[in-house]
Structures are given as structure tokens and as C-alpha cells.
Amino acid sequence: MNKELYKSLVYMQIDITPAHSFKSQIHGNHFPHSLSIICRCDNYRNEIRVDVNSN
What we know:
alpha+beta, 2 strands, 40% helix, 29% strand
């Protein structure tokens, strides 16, 4: 993964919950629509995992 993109994703995780809001904010406002971003919220470990696919 591109390092700058990764840093952006990590930075944006900080105050954004729940996972669907995070997905919405990234996909709609921060990245080109050619990126497909899928977020999964792990309630047991309180973490959000992000999968990024470039089309």
C-alpha cells in the first residue's frame, strides 16, 4: 500500500465511529471514487480494519 495513503487512513481513524461513518467519510470526501474502501469494526478489540482496493 502507498505509504502516504496508509498514513492518511491511520490519521483519519482517530475520532471516527462507527465503521459505516468512517467508510462514508473516506469514500465520499477524502479519496477519489476509483478507490473502494471497506471498513470492518472488531468490537472485541475496538479496532477498525481498512481494506483499500484501487480500480
